[in-house]
Fold:
Amino acid sequence: MALTLEEQFKCCICLEIYTDPASIPCGHNFCLDCIEDFWDTKDKPDCPLCKETFSTRPQLRINRGYAEIIQFLHRPQKEDEDAAMTPESTKQSPNPLSEAGEIPCDICQEDKWPSVKSCNTCQVSYCDVHLAPHLRDPVLQRHRLKDPTLFSSSHLCRIHKQPLTKFCTKDQAPVCEKCTENEHKHHQTVCMEQEQKRGQGEDT
Structure:
């Protein structure tokens, strides 16, 4: 079963949706307080997920892209509805997905509006309203957006139908959480976001 959007934005330390999500040098994200408290118990700071160690304690910064998405997750449903009620949208039918083949927005809670773009980095599809942060935030503007009809199949594991959140360095292929427990159990993996950042660096 595919991970829900909330599950994709959960801290692996407290198992709750990120509070002040902070990125560390290896590319993984944690609640700011969680990773600070975790490092307080360690002689040498390392990543709780990939175990990469750092010679000095990294200076943490809030991941503004994740923070904006989490803000939408916590926003009351009524605000989402009010934001979407433009003069044209009020004339649409109660079910916004009016055409076959349209990909629903992952952020919308009840009435699912069609996605206009999907983000390879966030692994999320967005409607017009929820895409707005990617268009105005400098961090999110660096994310790679694509057509949602292409993304809907390419971002899921063909075997387990789960999001491709990891990258297997041995097989040089994206994998899901189930893959790391089975076919790629003893292979070294990194998070997809880290691999995408590395790839973007090679392209420049």
